[in-house]
Amino acid sequence: MYLHVPFCKVKCLYCDFYSMPAGEETKDAYARALCRAIDAADPLCDTVYFGGGTPSQLGTVRLTAILAHIRRTADCEVTVECNPGDAAALDFRALAAAGVNRISMGLQSADDAERRALGRRSDAATVRRAVEQVQTAGIANLSLDLMLGIPGQTAESLARSIDFCLALDVPHVSAYLLKVEDGTPFAAMQEQLALPQEDAVCDFYLQTVDALAAAGLRQYEISNFARPGCESRHNLKYWRCEAYLGLGPAAHSFLDGKRFYYPRDLQAFLDGTPPIPDGPGGDPEEWLMLRLRLMEGVTDAAFAARFGAGLPDAFWETAARFARQGLMTVADGCAALTPTGCLLSNQIIGALLQTVAQA
User: Which helix (H) or strand (E) holds 64?
Assistant: First the structure.
């Protein structure tokens, strides 16, 4: 289950997610609306993810009340995204007692000038204190977000940010390339941004892959790195094209082979407006597109088990061509991107999907 929390105290300059500031009454009403939607669906969940927006803006009492409405397996992974600036107001011991066993926190950079350039509202020292607060509460599974291609970023400042994560002994890091989205403040000021050159950003990505691997955080998806056993089970469901239920404005779902979503409209969700059908999902092209994001890659056997026949010869011929260029590995009926291939993933995956569509 994915629960979208569309509240932020301040919106970051690069963000195009659906979020807004809200008062306490609105947050109370939203928590009640989520509980009603959960009760109506009544699924048994093996992962729960509070995303946003800023889920930590709901506070301890609301988050635990919502969790009390969710039927969960004994080993359910429960993740809450947390802004470091909210941590001091949260009771992580109470969250852990309610079932929260994973925290995802936005670092982006340990360089305070880079954080200010992104519009982040806390400094690196606040992030450090927040991480230590989570760890002291007994929640060991903690992820930090890094951003690559930040205005003013250098290889040296990135190295310091990576070292910051490693010094805090977090078992999971997500590293995303900054993308300037239409309609964001960054888009309006793009010409004034001191963005690193594309070649430098590619080098930053490979630098991150190598540094995290050397510290024992294995790359398991294009943008995600973890110690063994600390991979995000929730996000793996997306990439393996498994079923999930999303609740809240802008949340998407994939259940029983069908996709549906809630519009980006807080009042509509509060009013109980039902989600909008979005057609069937999980076809061979979509399955491949998602699975190829994983460093485990795709296998002929897994494709055949799902769709009744193996991948076409043209798929393997195309994958072999990319392998000769160092962009993929192909062995024993498995094709996977290399770290260098991840930088060209859209083009590579697109070419591979075309072989399946034409088969």
Answer: helix 59-67
Residue 327, helix vs strand vs coil: coil
pTM of the prediction?
Answer: 0.94
In terms of C-beta density within 10 A (0-12 exposed, 13-18 middle, 19 or more buried), how is residue 229 classed?
Answer: exposed
48, 53, 54, 55: CA torsion to nearest 10: -30
Structural domains for the chain: 2-238 (3.20.20.70), 295-357 (no CATH)
Element (H, E) at 280: strand 276-280
> What's the length of the chain?
359
User: End-to-end CA distance of the chain, in Å?
Assistant: 35
Which residues contact residue 295 at a Cβ distance below 8 angstroms, ignoring those fewer than 6 apart?
A: 218, 219, 220, 221, 336, 337
pLDDT averaged over consecutive 10-residue blocks of the chain (359 residues)?
A: 91 70 95 98 98 94 98 98 94 98 96 87 91 97 96 95 98 91 73 84 97 98 98 98 97 96 96 97 96 97 96 97 98 96 97 94
